[in-house]
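User: Quick sanity check before I run a bigger batch. Here is a single chain. Can you write out its predicted 3D structure?
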Amino acid sequence: MKNYFYFIPAFLLLLVSCQEETSEKIEIAAAANMQFPIKELTASFEEKTGIPTSVSIASSGKLTNQIKNGAPYEVFLSADMGYPEELYKKDFTAGKPKAYAFGKLVLWTTGEDAPSLNILKEEKIKHIAIGNPRLAPYGVAAKSVLKKHKLYSILKEKYVMGESITQVNQFITSNAADIGFTALAVVKSPNNRDIGKWIEIPDTSYAPIGQGTVLIKQEGKISDKAQQFYDFLFSQKARNILSNYGYSFQD
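Assistant: Done. Predicted structure follows.
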């Protein structure tokens, strides 16, 4: 009996310890353009603080819908300011969104020809990958570029729409699309920097892509750990990481 008496409390202590460890994780929702830099950001944050993180990647629109439906995210890193602003107006956030970085748009191909806007009209280009403008802010930027150059309507039969930049990238790297619009952070990542050719689209062709972040209220409050990660996003260490992926900043 004595053995059982001591075993049960020990088991319960282990169970409680595991639950506490799991609950310590910061639940982060990050837009698909952050797929690669978020790994470095969270690794640096965890090394500095010892606080574990869990990251979910999807389009900004999809993540916003998940948050509205009760997803347990504590920090949201969007690819624009619009979706975080929408959540703020509906009282899902602890404050107004703030831009932690500004993204840039590129045209990327794994084909033999050099990428350009002019080549999009050529018959040999059958499929152009683009983010769905209803869900992906980089898709909004791409649409703006194409409209400005009077290409959007005449190319409409060529579009292969991805629900996120991640899916757009898959279309390009698998050759399901001949060329496509993606984020500069994608082609600068260690995974993709040696794949294909790309050109940066002049940022005068689209509205600034402010990467907005907000703290999401859970049960009407935010955790101290989530606040720490939010603050880290604006640190010089985080900026150094993001600048390596081509992001810029406006103070």
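Strands lie at 26-31, 53-58, 75-77, 98-103, 105-109, 128-131, 159-162, 179-183, 197-200, 209-215.

User: Great, the batch can go ahead then.
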